[in-house]
Amino acid sequence: MTVPEPPVVDAHCHVFHRAMPFADTAWTRPDYDYRVETYLAELDRHGISFGVVTAASLFGDYNDYTLSVLDRHRRLRATVMLDPDTGPAEMATLKAQGVCGVRYQLPPAAALPDPAGYRFRRFVRRLADAGLHIELNLSGAQLAALLPALDDSGIDIVVDHFGLLRAEHGMEGEGFLAVLRSVERGRTRVKLSAGFRLRADEVAGYAARLIAAAGPERLFWGSDAPFVGFERAVDYAATLDLFYRIVPDARTRRLMSDAALRFYFF
């Protein structure tokens, strides 16, 4: 049996240790370590060259461990969480350290800030000026409201988890349809990450629709290691097997890898 070529980039993981401070709003509090050395060993075990550390809402804007990881491992890039009042000098420093974007996540029922308001638009403009993208992990209603407001911002957008993890009404909901429209406008990419968190009988259909709408050049794959909340149900090999199953064409997977390399590393 031919072994599938592994992806070149894992565009979504989390690394942490148990001494890190949890945000007051953390939805769970892992009682174990998943340090960068463990993650890199997992990449090596499966033949994956590069990884992207994604800011976890569990730790709020405590980015210290992630930044220390980037200082030591040039095969990694990362997103962080930032206060909207962060200044351009700090953003430029983060970019130079290997930070490539800022993750923006709110509780599903939370109201968005005024996307036309000065504070939010200043934040987004500063991100764009620093060459940082905005990574959205939001509910369907939040995506539907925010994505059109980012149209004229000049910022690159990455939507986490198929755009469906928190989306009401699945592929026919307002959030997913807003993601498809945003992809068509040219500045939005979508991560096929954490497929194991979605309905197993629907995830292949989600992937197929995104491939048809976005093309592989605007899609990335991510494992979501260490699978917080699913640690006993999923391992790294299982996430790869799922990827090969929902994206069965080897050329499509390779084009996704090339797109992730260009976006995150070059």
TrEMBL record:
Keyword set includes Hydrolase: yes
One Pfam entry name: Amidohydro_2
Residue span(s) of domain Amidohydrolase-related: 9-266
Official protein name in the record: Predicted metal-dependent hydrolase, TIM-barrel fold
Claim: Hydrolase is one of the keywords in the record: yes
Keywords: Hydrolase
Superkingdom of origin: Bacteria
GO molecular function: hydrolase activity
Phylogenetic placement of the source organism: Bacteria, Pseudomonadati, Pseudomonadota, Alphaproteobacteria, Sphingomonadales
